[in-house]
Design goal:
The structure is a single chain. It is built from eleven helices and six strands. With about 230 residues, the protein is an alpha+beta fold. It has one domain. Helix 1 packs across helix 3 and helix 4 crosses helix 9. It is globular and about 50 Å long.
């Protein structure tokens, strides 16, 4: 199913032009396209994460509804924190670095990860970190082409190759003897949602920022100018 959707996306004329401009060949388009599909409401094996706690809080309280029954789990939202440095037995390193600009295919990488019983994370935001150690290193983005959402949301992905196993069911996630907790969960009562909304709003974290619409931005710029002129 996933490979079929990616192949269909490769036939879209606009996307062909976008990736031709960036010198991305058709056999390199799987993960750049998968990023677009994920951020624009298609089902994919990518799980959205962010480097920014305020952005995570925005999505946690986005369109929440409080339960009519008290003292139930529905009274809470949850924030998950992933320690990507503890990846020895579960979370592979950043695909951008590991792929060395080879742009792997979805099915090919999925098969390898299934054999290794692991997942992998993908982030364009760490490219400059790699270059600190090697200024001549060239690493191309994998997820941020033609994707304003991921740039605004400081997003990274975890790619789960399993067809029927969610992330929390990977046994390596729960092996306490390893001593490396992989994912932390923080539960927050929904009664705090208005306070959270106010606090993150002070940092300009809102729908207009996280779901960029350039037409709306242009309209606001013009409207602000006209108001200034009229006054």
């Amino acid at each position: 199913m996933i490979q079929n959707m990616v192949n269909k996306a490769k036939e879209v004329k606009l996307l062909q032009q976008v990736f031709k401009y960036y010198d991305i060949k058709i056999d390199q388009m799987d993960f750049p396209l998968l990023s677009i599909l994920q951020h624009y409401k298609a089902p994919t094996p990518l799980l959205d994460w962010t480097y920014d706690l305020n952005i995570a809080l925005f999505f946690a309280i986005y369109n929440i509804k409080k339960s009519d029954i008290s003292n139930v789990i529905d009274d809470y939202i949850s924030i998950y924190r992933l320690n990507k440095n503890n990846h020895q037995s579960f979370l592979e390193n950043n695909l951008n670095f590991m792929s060395a600009n080879r742009f792997p295919g979805v099915s090919w990488l999925g098969g390898i990860l299934q054999d290794k019983n692991s997942v992998i994370y993908i982030s364009d935001f760490e490219i400059n970190e790699f270059k600190k150690d090697d200024p001549d290193l060239i690493i191309k983005p994998l997820t941020s082409y033609y994707n304003l959402n991921i740039l605004a949301q400081k997003g990274l992905f975890v790619f789960n190759p399993s067809e029927d196993r969610p992330l929390e069911d990977f046994p390596e996630l729960h092996e306490s003897e390893i001593g490396n907790t992989k994912i932390y969960c923080y539960n927050i009562n929904k009664d705090l949602s208005e306070l959270i909304k106010y606090k993150i709003g002070e940092k300009y974290i809102n729908s207009d920022f996280l779901f960029p619409n350039l037409e709306q931005y242009s309209k606001k710029i013009l409207d602000d100018y006209l108001k200034f002129v009229i006054v």
